[in-house]
Amino acid sequence: MSLRERDLYIATKESIEKCDLSLNELEAILNRSGYFFRSHRNYILNVRQIKEIIPWFNNTYLIKMNDDNQTDIPVSRGKIKAFRCMMNL
Q1: 58-77: pLDDT as tens digits
Q2: What number of other Cβ atoms are within 10 A of residue 89's Cβ?
């Protein structure tokens, strides 16, 4: 899930769809599953679809997703501790 120009889009393996919820509302729904993580103020990712975790600058990570485009998603500095804990890093 990502924000582009104040609109929310949900990307799946099959399509990219616009969503009418706010990112905060969607995060609250997805958190119940335990499989989603808000890595940045503009992104929520499915941790089951992570292909690679790449160490990045300032002790952060760049996540390469397991999709056709191998989408790169950043993990913000403020989310590093929670991400490491969730991923047992």
Answers
A1: 889 999 999 888 899 999 99
A2: 10
